[in-house]
Amino acid sequence: MPRRERTRCVSDRRRLFVVAVGGSLFLAGCKGDKEKDDPRVALAARVGPATTSGDTTTKFADDGQWVRPAKDFQGTRFSGLTEINNTNVQKLHVFGTFSLGTTRGVEAAPIVAGTTMYIVTPFPNFVYALDLTKEGMPTKWSYKPRPVNAAQGVACCDVVNRGLVVDAGKVIFNTLDGRTIALDAATGKELWETQLANINLGESVTMAPLVVKGKVFVGVSGGEFGVRGWLKAVDENSGKLAWTAYHTGPDKDVLIGPNFKPFYKMDQGKDLGVSSWPADQWKIGGAGVWGWITYDPELDLIYYGTANPGPWNPEMRPGDNKWSSTVFARHPDNGEAVWAYQLSPHDEHDYDGVNENILVDMDWKGTRRQLILRPERNGYFYVFDRKTGEVLSAEPFGFVNTTTGVDLKTGRLQYAPEKATRIGQVVRYSCPAAPGMKDWQPSAYSPRTGLVYIPHQNLCMDEEGLEANYIAGTPYVGTNVKMYAGPGGNRGFFDAWDPVGQHKVWSIKEDLPVWSGALVTAGDVAFYGTMDGWFKAVDARTGNPLWQFKTGSGIISQPMTYSYGGKQYIAVLSGVGGWSGAIVAGGLDARDSSAALGFVNAMKDLPQKSTKGGMLYVFAL
Amino acid sequence: MSSRSNGWRATCSALIGILLLSACERENRRFQENPPTATPTSTALIVSDLQPGPGMVIPKVEAPYDDNAWAVSEGKSLFNSMNCSGCHFQGGGGIGPPLMDEEWIYGYEPQQIFASIADGRPNGMPAWKYSLSTQQIWELVSYVRSLSGLNPKGARSGRDDHMMRKTPEASTPNAVPKMSSTPPEDSA
Asked: For this structure, is A395 an active site residue?
């Protein structure tokens, strides 16, 4: 390993814009068990499958548990439980709490498997198992993976963790310093540990793994550090690496072979991961994976998106920069790519493509189709045919002026030339800002309403290109950014979107960016949290506010629901931070409007509205 | 009368002399020189205010470039070209803590900042001593100090070449430095 890294650093260094500052230069980096008598089964059975739009792929069994952050393989974040519903949600009260012992941004979902709740915290990535069978949910076991402290230096946007997964009696999670660890879900005993990322190359891991057919999928973060993005599959039983798919470079590294059939011409051709970059720049071209992976058991395909290309400054990387900001469909067994679609070719504004691909079967213009619903960072709500990668619709779900639309014939995003990022030039009022119309915060889909519930932000920015220097293990960005509220002055929205009608059904204005995920239930209630700590329930059909509770810190995590002993519970983690909350989590100085990649400028008032925290809240009727 | 005006003259020329001298230092460009020795003594690494036993006097190391405008501006361009700005931005912080405020985790004395940069700090601050010369690190020390007004105003940058991100160092109010009361995050 070290030898290989060195060669890579040297060749990168030869070519890149490195400023020679003196003789002594640099390149520092060169160098669940399910209980048998689970009382919830009865409740789930009573609730039965959801009714309306006749969705066939989404399986609603197992509503008592919530074993992965998105609940099901399809990423719906929908629960069939109905005890808590739009007529009684006002009666929710706190059932229990638990302090995580950390103070950085909490993005994870509590996970429930069997009669245990599992939580992974932000760095230093403690894992807790809480016993749901006992009063007060006492700790069954806890685990400290002790990630190296220096890993905090390569986490671009707070030291978050997006959750763990329980599968086949194992708790599987990632650490910030790039390890994937499997624990015995019953005892917390470590079963295996595999080092996947290297912090000296700027690599870290923040995403939740997904387990499909005995393989654990993990991607790398570090689009702001010039990593070469990858997705790896690790054997669930041994922890051994099964395959690696890179997102830049020659086809053989990207696992593109004879069965690769992208729908659009722009994504067809040999070795585009090399030829769409200036010489060798693909080696440090970003395109990590730190968002969501979903799985269709029928087509046997996993779906995920890749992050922004590096550096942000687009003038340093002429070309489409494949395969950054791209949706991939791959076979889970061997990683082989089946199709790909580049959402934002030659990204100009840090529009990562990591958002969730929600898999549903719906009637689309009279025919039943296997679809992907995808509210994208660049501001468009995409509907794809998930067999072919064809874009059926791409309509803006907020104010966009950096692009003018998606050409459905060529599939290509149409950039507004006046908003292009240029070195030494300040372009003002580009919308959406760098975190996009919607960042990591996952939306939810209800088969009862047919609507997608989208938590998102409303931000614009001033942007200036700068020359970026690649120094391994340090940021590789090359822009000045300053963000502020978009049209209307509110910084966030919680919206319901009709994917078939291709329009917004209702929209709730929030003062602060809505950085939490969404949850929707068969009780027709949608839940989300705000950065000033309110946990809110609204009517899934009308958006009418039904209930709210003020938690101790801002909410930027993923709410979930489960049942135990025939009773339904709603759980959420409170603890402000993340990129949007870095001003509080990192104690940043608002006088520098470029701080935290320009997000601080839009969040100057957050320290008055929320303080650091890390707490589980469980609610019940 | 005349003795009085002589007195005035003497005072004036003394003042002008001082001004000229300090102005000289402000404008001095050291293209070739023996880099100031770094070697902050072990006492420089003390980051605690709690010292058992009789109070200890920490010998203060002067920052060689605190009042040299050219060196401070060199420090500023290094701060951006070496990607310090990628983690600390223009002093407001991001991945790394703010450097323009009054709170310091590891100390604001020149030798402490030198140590922060040269040796790195455990929670994600890279060690730069093998990638930057001692002279460059001292330039960075004085630039970092200028962010919160710890060096003479005349030597601080009065303008920024880029998008307006914050008031220039010369017009930023001086902060009264103090050690941070929040201990850095640890992995207990």
From this structure: no
- Find chain A residues with C-beta within 8 A of B172's C-beta: 591
The answer to whether residue A426 neighbours chain B at the CB level (below 8 Å) is yes
Tokens of A262: 């992208």
Contacts of B145 (CB under 8 A, 6+ apart): B63, B66, B108, B110, B113, B151
Residue type, A101: G
Distance from CA of A465 to the nearest CA of B (A): 10
pTM score: 0.89
Domain range A16-620, CATH architecture: 8 Propeller (2.140)
Q: For the residues of chain B, what is the DSSP string, one character each?
A: -HHHHHHHHHHHHHHHHHHHHHHHHHH---SS-PPPP----GGGG---S---SS--PPPPPPPTTTT-HHHHHHHHHHHHHTTHHHHHTTTT-SSSPPSSSSEESS--SHHHHHHHHHH-BTTTBPP-TTTS-HHHHHHHHHHHHHHTT-S-GGGS----SSS--S--GGGSPPP--EE-SSPPP---
ipTM reported for the complex, 2 dp: 0.89
Q: Which amino acid is residue A1, in one-letter code?
A: M
How far away is chain B from the Cα of A518, in angstroms, using its nearest Cα?
27
Per-residue pLDDT 10s for chain B (188 aa) are 444 555 556 555 555 555 445 556 777 776 555 555 555 555 556 777 777 877 666 677 889 999 999 999 999 999 999 999 999 999 999 999 999 999 999 999 999 999 999 999 999 999 999 999 999 999 999 999 999 999 999 999 988 878 888 888 888 888 888 876 544 444 33
